Structures are given as C-alpha cells and as structure tokens.
Amino acid sequence: VEPGNGLLRGMGAEFTRIDIDGGSVTGGGGGRGQNAAAIPADMIERVEVMKALTPDMDPDSIGGRINLITKSAFDRNGRAINIRAAASYSFTYGSDVFKKSDASQAPSFAANYSDVFSVFGGKNNLGIYVTANWERIQDVRGTTSWDNPTTVSGVEYQRFNNASTALHGLVRSGTALKADYKV
Asked: Rounded to an integer, what distance in angstroms lies between the CA atom of residue 59 and that of residue 116?
C-alpha cells in the first residue's frame, strides 16, 4: 500500500493537518485530507508530531498535527553531494503475477546537492539545497471483476470474482529546490 495521508490518534486524514516548515499545506482534493506522497523523502530532515494542540495553534486538526521540516544547506558543513541508487526484487512480481521481464525489479534513484554561498556583501548567507528522485513502486493487489452471468430460475445474475491478483505499479519522480537567505 502506498502511504499518503497522515493519521493520528485513530482519526481519519481529514482530522490531521500536515504542515511543511510550519506552513499549512492544502489538500488539493475534494476533502480535508492532505496527501504527503508528493513530497520527496530525500527533502525531509525530520518530522515533528503533535498529538495535542497548544493554545498558539489553529483549532483545525483535532486528530493532531504533523510538521515536515525540510533539509537546509545551513544544516551541513560546506558543499555536500549525495547520490543514491537502490532496487528491490520480488520473485512474485515476475513469475506469478506479471510475465514481463523487468516486473520483478523496482529501482530507485536520487541525487542531492547543497552548498552555502556569500552574496550581497554577506558571509555564507545564501543556502541552496536541490534534490531530484525517480522510483518505481510495485505491489501485488487483489482485483475485482465480474465474470460471465449465471442463470438462476430463469433470471440472469452477474457473478462477482475477487480471486485474481494484479501488479499495481507506480512511477514517481520529482525535483525540489530550497533557497534560504540569512539577513
């Protein structure tokens, strides 16, 4: 299952608010739930979870609040370049579910760059953090289908079949740029 919504204290996603660096994020969908799946994990420094609201918070998240703190070039010492390549392999994907030769492999790639610059007469006052990633996510899910109709006492009924499996694949990619300026 591809996680996307934050759930706290057993309440639905519409009762949990997701912030990025303390700022509110819109849901973008038809409800109040906010999907965090579009935020690259390589961009997140830490996650703050608040299960109870404090007096300085808006009362719009009775389940709690999740604040995603993004990485900053100021958190590192000098220039940093990171490259990640990974893959997962499943015998089930290729042999039992999907007969395509590369279906059993799920590769993942990411690259990050950060540096601090001196601009406008300041010293080390501009931080740049850039990340890019690409990944294929696969899992096996049950599928629902309707089989050929069955006739019972002269009345035709559709038959429900939930016994098949299918490979659910998702390709996700993204880039992000964060620029911090110290006055």
From this structure: 38
Task: Determine the Cα–Cα distance for residues 88 and 103; give it in Å rounded to an integer.
Answer: 11
pLDDT digits (tens, 9 = 90+) for 4-43: 667 777 777 777 888 888 887 765 555 666 666 667 777 8
Retrieve residue 183's tokens. 């006055």
**CA 157 → CA 17, 54, 120, 144, 161, distances in Å?**
45, 57, 76, 16, 13
Please give the biggest Cα pair distance in the chain.
89
Do the Cβ atoms of 135 and 128 come closer than 8 Å?
no
